[in-house]
Amino acid sequence: MSFVPKETIEVIAQSIGITNLSPDVALALAPDLEYRIREIMQESVKCMRHSMRTFLTTEDVDTALALRNLEPIYGSTSNDPPQFKRAAGHKDLFYIDDKDVDIKDIIEAPLPKAPLDTSITSHWLAIEGVQPAIPENAPVEAPSEIRKSEYKEDGLPVDVKLPVKHLITRELQLYYEKITDLTLNKPGSIPFRRALVSLATDSGLHPLVPYFTFFVADEVAQNLNNLAVLFALMRLVRSLLQNSQIHIELYLHQLMPPIITCIVAKRIGNRLSDDHWELRNFSANLVASICQRFGHIYHNLQPRVTKTFLHSFLDPTKALPQHYGAIKGIEALGSRLIRLLILPNLEPYLHLLEPEMQPEKQKNEMKRHEAWQVYGALLGAAGQCVHEKVKMFSNLFSPPTRVTSRGSGKAVIAMSGKRKASTDNLMQQQQQLPPMKKLATDGPGGVVAMNSMLVDMQGSTGGYSSMMGVSSMSMARQISIDNVPGREVGDQQRKLSSTLAQAWKDDIDTGNLVSSVVELFGESVLPFVVSNPEACMFL
């Protein structure tokens, strides 16, 4: 038995124009109508549950009809529940009380805006802490005094820049104002030192990084005559670089120009007593630390910095303090750049610098002081390169060794009991060596001829090539040939020969470097090789 009475079927039939529907047909259609209604309601409930809701809406019914390929219900929807009224004369018949609307009012009413499809768009809420003035963001009202000046007296419009809204807290604003005040007014005080420690350790300062970078760039450009402020600004930058909680690499394009300015600026400070040389050294080390830390992220960072230093160093129109800063910058970047950029130009530059250092030719005492500072920078750079080379080849000036063999198949080195005190003794020991030495092994074919490594030492001056040969032989201390078959012995021989040949070439390059630097600077370069007594004796 159906819950839908046959009278409902007859009313529906009359609403669509069927007036002669028999009672038997109405009674047969009632169960089918109930089945279809239950089916639609079940689909509607499923749509409700998939929408994570606990109440049913008309949208769920429309979705269920669409899933069944049925025409949806047209008309306006409302969140308010419909108001049903009981039909007069029928106890169980209800209808919705729709108000009568005049068609003239509907025609004269303005058309509503067309609804937009649901979509997702993105826009910048803030860029480096500043909210951009775009339609998607809330508009910022201009002050009344700015709005009054939107037009000139002649009626031409004037571009008005609305103030930007800074997305930082009041506490960070006070912190920023305190740091900048200490930097500009009390750069040598104890509170400023504590502020530097705070900048290097606090983890919540990233929103202030763009403000600090802009502050440094602006103040360096305005305070080139104030050495104390410039030094304080560079110390502030170093503290920011030491803070591992902030991402300062995003602002390197703003930080590098003021730092390089403190290195290669023509004039820093306004007093003769200002020690701007120390500021240039400090800033050069700062640039080197930046290149070492972020060079793998920005591959063109160090080449661009190096190009700037090289241009300042080779430009004869630049002042001597600029040359000094360029030399210190290249020196801080490492001995490899010194060897590639400074040493090839060292001799002609010293010829041009020498007249500026002599009182007879340069009467200006300040110019002579600057020239001596540049000379010291060149000496330090060349000495650093020599020191690295001598440290790399610590056996460069070691005494000769005798190669013997044991039955175990390993080459054994017999060291002399004590070091010789002169190069003559080294020459005598080298000449006493037999014309051919062999490394003997127990396996077949395990003989390596050593006379191929010997060179003609008669044409050398001062025993220089003799020491080079000694160094290459001393490199063989770390090489041993095990008891292996013939093919492996051949490979081992080739490896041994290539290793000794490369060691010989490196030793020759190192010797040439040392000798050329000694010729230019004399005994001033000795402190850079004090760790090797034989080197000092040779020089």
TrEMBL record:
Top-level taxonomic group: Eukaryota
Q: Which UniProt keywords apply?
A: Activator, Nucleus, Transcription, Transcription regulation
Q: Where is this protein localized, as stated in its record?
A: Nucleus
- InterPro entries registered for this protein in UniProt: ARM-type_fold, Histone-fold, TAF6, TAF6_C, TAF6_C_sf, TAF_TATA-bd_Histone-like_dom
Q: Pfam families this protein is in?
A: TAF, TAF6_C
Name all TATA box binding protein associated factor (TAF) histone-like fold domain ranges. Answer: 2-68
Which GO annotations describe the biological process of this protein?
transcription initiation at RNA polymerase II promoter
Q: Does the keyword Hydrolase apply?
A: no
Gene Ontology cellular-component annotations = SAGA complex; SLIK (SAGA-like) complex; transcription factor TFIID complex
Question: Which terms does the record give in the GO molecular function aspect?
Answer: protein heterodimerization activity; RNA polymerase II general transcription initiation factor activity
Kindly indicate whether the keyword Transcription regulation belongs to this entry: yes
* Protein family according to the UniProt entry: Belongs to the TAF6 family.
Q: Which PANTHER family match?
A: TRANSCRIPTION INITIATION FACTOR TFIID SUBUNIT 6
From the Swiss-Prot or TrEMBL record, give the protein name: TATA box binding protein associated factor (TAF) histone-like fold domain-containing protein
* Species in which this protein is naturally found: Glycine max (Soybean)
Q: Which gene encodes it?
A: LOC100799998
